[in-house]
Amino acid sequence: MLIEQAALADVLVLTPQPHRDGRGLFTRTFDAHEFDDFVGRPGLAATFIQDSQSRSHRGVVRGMHGRAGRGEAKLVRCAHGSVHDVLVDMRPNSPTFGAQQSFLLDDTDFRTLFVPPGFLHGFQALSPVADVCYRIDRPHDPAEDIGIAYDDPDLAIAWPQPVTAVSDRDASAASWKELLAALGLGS
Questions:
Q1: CA torsion, ordered 45, 76, 121, 173, to nearest 10 deg
Q2: Rounded distance, CA 24 to CA 18, Å?
Q3: What is the 3-state secondary structure (H, E, C) of the chain?
Q4: Domain that holds residue 102
Q5: How much is the mean pLDDT over the chain?
Q6: Are 81 and 123 in contact (CB under 8 A)?
Q7: What's residue 185's pLDDT?
Q8: How many distinct structural domains can be found in the chain?
Q9: Which phi and psi (to 5°) does residue 164 adopt?
Q10: Catalytic residue among 19, 65, 80, 84
């Protein structure tokens, strides 16, 4: 498995090395020992306790979501299809605070993103159907959910396709400025 640092501070891209032959392929999508060795924190991989999966149709945007409090670390991958995945750093002491980065996650390269606490996350389905898998480091608590509008003008996220659907929650999400003010980070 190849592990690389993304442009956003502390975000990692994990790329498996599939074994392909006439039958298809086999790949490890995650290796706890390699992950822990790379980050230099033995046992970090064992903190992931809950797996979830979403299925979306082409053009659907899910996001931009995050967690208040101590945040949430996650591993994100696309098990079927492809998505345009976007992260926004909302950690005030980070060198990449307010910056965003996008990634192509698909069922060809099997990349997984390690997203540390303090990021907003969202994606757009690029294929007819896209299954996204999330592994998080603590149980979901809806009371800690935070988010910003997927079409916030200050962030100006460039979704590659026309947006065909968003949830009611995402359609009425706060702006980047409102979120920063609510978290005591804005002016």
A1: -110
A2: 10
A3: CEEEECCCCCCEEEECCCEEECCEEECCCCCHHHHHHHHCCCCCHHHCCEEEEEEEECCEEEEEEEECCCCCCEEEEEEECEEEEEEEECCCCCCCCCCEEEEEEECCCCCEEEECCCEEEEEEECCCEEEEEEEECCCCCHHHEEEECCCCCCCCCCCCCCCCECCHHHHCCECHHHHHHHCCCCC
A4: 2-182
A5: 95
A6: no
A7: 77
A8: 1
A9: -95, -25
A10: 65
The upper half-sphere exposure of residue 166, i.e. CA atoms within 13 Å in the direction of its Cβ, equals 22
Task: Say which residue the tokens 């950690």 belong to.
Answer: 91
> pTM for the full model?
0.94
* Band of residue 187 on the pLDDT scale cut at 50, 70, 90: low
- Report yes or no on 187 lying in a domain: no
65 assigned to active site: yes
| Residue among 80, 134, 140, 150 flagged as catalytic | 134
33 is catalytic: no
Q: What is the CATH number of the domain that holds 109?
A: 2.60.120.10
Token readout for 177 is 């400025």
- For residue 175, with 0-12 CB atoms within 10 Å meaning exposed, 13-18 middle and 19 or more buried, which class applies? middle
